[in-house]
Prior knowledge:
Blueprint: E1 2-8, H1 15-28, E2 33-36, E3 39-40, E4 43-46, E5 49-52, H2 55-62, E6 74-75, H3 78-85, H4 93-104, E7 109-113, H5 128-135, E8 138-144, H6 148-162, E9 166-174, H7 179-192, E10 197-202, H8 205-208, E11 210-211, H9 212-219, E12 222-223, E13 233-234, E14 236-239, H10 244-252, E15 257-262, H11 266-274, E16 279-283, H12 290-299, E17 303-305, H13 310-318, H14 329-342, H15 345-352
Parallel strand pairs: 1-7, 1-8, 2-7, 3-6, 8-9, 9-10, 14-15, 15-16, 16-17
Antiparallel strand pairs: 4-5, 11-13, 12-17
Helix pairs in contact: 1-14, 6-7, 10-11, 11-12
Amino acid sequence: MKSLYITSVERYSGKTAVCLALGRHFQEKNIKIGYLKPLSIQPRLTGGKIVDEDAAFVKETLALDTPLADLSPAVVTHELLEERLAGADENLMPKVQDAVKAAGKGKDLLLLEGGGSLREGYVVDLPTPQVAKTLKSKVLVVVKYRDEIRLLDDALTAAARLEKSICGVIINRVPKSEIRFVNEFAKPYIENHGLHVFGVLPEERVLAALLVDDLIDAMHPEILTDCDTNNIPVENLTVGAMTTEAAMTRLRSQRHPALITGGDRIDIQIMALESNASCLILTGGLEPRPLIVKYADERGIPVLMTHLNTLETVKAIDGVFGKTRIGQLTKLDHFQQLMNKHVDMDAVLNCLEL
C-alpha cells in the first residue's frame, strides 16, 4: 500500500479540496482509496465522539468504510493541549501508525491529509516532516499564490523542510494577471531546483465565495426573514454608505453581492432587493420597516440585523472571506474540473509508482 501525504505551507490553501479531487479522480481509475488525517486541530463533537471538522464530508465524498471517529487519530482539543503543557508526554505516533494500518487495509493508496501549514504539529510531536518520514509517505504540497516572492520562497521552503519526502507541488489560487509569470518564470525556476510542479490552478472567485450561513456564523445576527438561508452564495460585499444610484451601479456589476447598510436606508434596501442581492445586512441594531422584511421574504432574500456598526461588520466578514472550506459538493465539482484541466494527474501517480 502506497501513501500520499498532502499538506500546505499555510492554512486555507485548498489542501482538503486537492485531497478530495485526487481521491475521486483515482477512484475513477479503479484505484482503491483510503483516507486519514493523522493530526487535526479542528475538533468537533459528533455522536458523542471528538472528530475532525471535515471528517463527515470527506467520508461521504469518498464513500469511505472507515468509522468517522477513526479518520483522525490525534485530534487536539483544548483539554489535550492543557494536559500536554502540564507535562503529559504521551507519544501519539504509535496511535497514528495503527490508524494508518487500519485505514490502509485492502487499499491501493492511502491519502493522508496533513496540517494546515508546515508549522503545525510540533507541540504534540507530530509535525508534518516527521510524520511523513515515519510513515514513509511521499508528500505533495499545495502552495497558495500570495505574491511573486512568497510563491518562490514557499515552494523552496517546503522542499527544504521535507527533503527527500517531497514529490512536488501544486500552485493554487493564481490571479489571472499572474498566470503568465507563474507559468513562464516561477514554474521553470522551481523545477530547475529539483521540485516538480504538478499544476498551476487559476483563482476562481466562486470557490472563495461565502454562503449566507457563513455570514451568520461570523456575525451571529438576528435573522429577520423566514426564507431559507442554505446554499446562498456571497461573492462580494457592498457597503451602502453612498447614493442610491451609486449603490445600484455597484450591485449590478457584482455577482452574488451582500449589501451592508443601516436599517434606516429604505431606498437602498429596496434597490438591493430588486437587484437580487444575496442578502441584506443591517448594522447598528436598527430594524427595517416591516414592508422590507415582507418584500425580502417574497423574493427569498435573507435580511440579517446585527448590533455591530458598519466597520465592525465589514471586519468580521473580511475575517472569513477566502477562508471557506470545501464542504459543498457544488464547489468540489467545480474544483474537480480545474484539477482535471490544469494538474498532471498521471505525474502524481508516477511519483507514487502506481
